[in-house]
Amino acid sequence: MHEHDMCDHDCGIHKDIIDKVSKVMPDEAVLYDAAELLKVFGDSTRIRIIFVLCQSEMCVCDIADLLQMTQSAISHQLRVLKQARLVNTRREGKTIYYSLCDAHVQKIFYAAMEHVLE
């Protein structure tokens, strides 16, 4: 820790701030789950897939062709995204289409993109 990261020895505890934050602090399990969710976003292939699915529902073949990757690699990442409850599937005949679970996924993705592009 750098010296400028530390409080003065005389600053004391700001009990009012600590009390205010403590009242709204989520349970450790909720924070752990949030951290695990964000880890899923920590892979560039999964981010590319999420971007594609923000635009349209797609099947594995189309995603693989668009991203110039193997269907196997895309399927693996879609499994991870599905386990994290970020994507849904819909069957039409023999084809399975993937889409984002809900608007939250899109909001997280676009918030990250907005931050990066600032």
Tell me what the structure shows.
A hairpin with a 2-residue loop joins β2 (87-92) and β3. The model has no long low-confidence stretch (mean pLDDT 92). α4 (60-67) packs across α5. This protein has a single domain (14-117), classed as Arc Repressor Mutant, subunit A, CATH 1.10.10. The protein starts with 14 loop residues before the first helix and ends with a helix. It has 118 residues and is mainly alpha-helical. The chain has helices at 15-24, 28-40, 44-55, 60-67, 71-83, 103-117, and strands at 58-59, 87-92, 95-100. It is elongated, with a radius of gyration of 20 Å. It is built from 6 helices and 3 strands. It has a 3-stranded antiparallel β-sheet with strand order 1-3-2.
List the SSEs and their pairings.
Layout lengths: L14 H10 L3 H13 L3 H12 L2 E2 H8 L3 H13 L3 E6 L2 E6 L2 H15 L1
Antiparallel strand pairs: 1-3, 2-3
- Strand proportion, as a percent range, falls in 5-15%
What would the principal axes of the Cα set say about the shape?
A: elongated
Mean pLDDT across all residues, rounded? 92
Alpha carbon gap, first and last residue: 28 Å
User: Structural class, from helix and strand content?
Assistant: mainly alpha
Looking at CATH, which topology would you report? Arc Repressor Mutant, subunit A
Number of strands: 3
Radius of gyration: 20 Å
Largest sheet: 3 strands, antiparallel
Per CATH, the architecture is: Orthogonal Bundle
Detail the poorly predicted runs.
none
- H/E element sequence: HHHEHHEEH
What strand line-up does the widest sheet have?
1-3-2
Number of helices: 6
Could you name the CATH class?
A: Mainly Alpha
Could you estimate the helical fraction of the residues in percent? Answer: 55-70%
User: How many domains comprise the coordinates?
Assistant: 1
CATH superfamily: Winged helix-like DNA-binding domain superfamily/Winged helix DNA-binding domain
